[in-house]
Design a protein that fits this description.
215 residues; alpha+beta; Alpha-Beta Plaits; 8-stranded antiparallel β-sheet
């Protein structure tokens, strides 16, 4: 699976306009290989819109970018409502099991999304990946309200890793962060492997969600 991470820094007084424009990505539902799109406003920086889309494979994503992306994007008019955009691609290394069976159902049922991006030290990637699989992902999947997610590696920088998870509620995620997360980090010796760990969260804007037409 390919994960596309899109963060837009929306212009002051343009949030409502951007919100309406983001709703115009519904044609994605008919694109070959599209698995879902979900987004919301960054909980710490309210002018940053966070959007994730999911694709079956690189070939389907590349075909979409070549044949359909510009047409849909042009019709939204979004280029006029944000100051900057940051786009990055990740390739899934492991599905994180939760209550839901796949990313489509996670997108459909999640009310809160958590992102964690780790920048891993040179020479520590193999250990970091193993600890993520054995300790962190396993521990997280047993947390109350965790619906499922993905552990993925950046296509541009092999030292960067993404953990993206969907939660039933903000409260469930808060409880996990307070009660489980510190112990999982300690058990995985994350500080030995990572030189930067960054986290973002957002409440899901249902109006921005897009699902494949056959779901």
């Amino acid at each position: 699976m390919i994960i596309k991470r899109i963060f837009c820094n929306v212009k002051e007084n343009h949030k409502e306009e951007f919100f309406e424009q983001q709703m115009q990505w519904k044609p994605l539902s008919n694109v070959k290989g599209f698995l879902g799109q979900i987004g919301g406003w960054n909980s710490k920086e309210p002018l940053i819109a966070c959007v994730y889309s999911f694709w079956n494979n690189q070939t389907d994503y590349d075909q979409f970018m070549e044949e359909q992306h510009d047409q849909i994007f042009g019709k939204t008019g979004q280029i006029n409502s944000y100051e900057s955009i940051d786009v990055s691609l990740f390739r899934e290394k492991q599905w994180i099991f939760g209550k839901e069976k796949d990313i489509v159902h996670v997108c459909k049922t999640s009310n809160y999304i958590r992102e964690a991006i780790s920048k891993v030290k040179e020479g520590n990637i193999e250990h970091f990946v193993e600890m993520q699989r054995r300790v962190c992902n396993t521990g997280m999947q047993n947390s109350e309200g965790m619906l499922g997610g993905t552990f993925a590696q950046s296509q541009m920088n092999s030292n960067n890793f993404l953990v993206l998870t969907g939660w039933k509620s903000e409260k469930d995620h808060h409880n996990y962060s307070k009660e489980n997360f510190p112990e999982l980090l300690k058990g995985a010796n994350t500080n030995d492997d990572v030189f930067e760990l960054r986290g973002e969260q957002f409440k899901v804007q249902e109006a921005w969600s897009v699902y494949p037409c056959d779901y």
